[in-house]
């Protein structure tokens, strides 16, 4: 009976992941469309500025510059909202340095910055103290290539140097 339960759970998990993938793909398509809108606005803006240059009256392009730039900024904001939706679906958040980290991370794995939304306290894993995939201080698992622990914020290079002393 447990075999059928495992199969059912696996099927539900696969269905959830497929649904997430479809949603993320749909959002990526929206982002692509918005990026094309921006490229079109840049092209229109360039044409207006060039036309103003040819006529010798660059000031005549100023209203167009403000109008098109405002539209570009609005679309960039819309793109950021869509990217945030993707991070939510993937259960991730973004550090100020631009690195994407798990939503439950307390510190950025790239720059070590303390993240604003603290999650539940990490459970310490005392076993495997010398395991390179574990933080040298709190013994929680590290992300691949992490320079800093997402749980305690410790620089792994500095912590490993301290262990060797």
TrEMBL record:
Q: Which Pfam families match?
A: DZR
What InterPro entries is this protein classified in?
Answer: DZR
| Coiled-coil blocks | 65-92
User: Which branch of life, at top level?
Assistant: Bacteria
Q: Where is the DZANK-type domain?
A: 96-153
- Tell me which UniProt keywords the record has, alphabetically: Coiled coil
Its recorded name reads: Zinc ribbon domain-containing protein
């Amino acid at each position: 009976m447990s075999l059928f339960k495992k199969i059912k759970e696996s099927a539900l998990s696969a269905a959830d992941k497929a649904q997430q993938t479809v949603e993320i793909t749909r959002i990526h398509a929206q982002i692509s469309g918005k990026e094309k809108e921006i490229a079109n606005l840049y092209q229109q803006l360039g044409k207006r500025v060039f036309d103003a240059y040819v006529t010798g009256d660059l000031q005549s392009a100023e209203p167009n510059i403000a109008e098109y730039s405002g539209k570009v900024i609005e679309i960039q904001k819309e793109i950021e909202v869509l990217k945030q939706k993707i991070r939510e679906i993937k259960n991730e958040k973004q550090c100020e340095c631009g690195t994407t980290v798990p939503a439950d991370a307390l510190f950025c794995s790239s720059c070590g910055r303390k993240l604003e939304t603290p999650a539940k306290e990490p459970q310490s894993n005392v076993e495997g103290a010398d395991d390179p995939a574990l933080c040298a201080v709190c013994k929680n698992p590290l992300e691949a290539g992490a320079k800093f622990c997402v749980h305690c914020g410790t620089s792994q290079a500095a912590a490993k140097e301290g262990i060797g002393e």
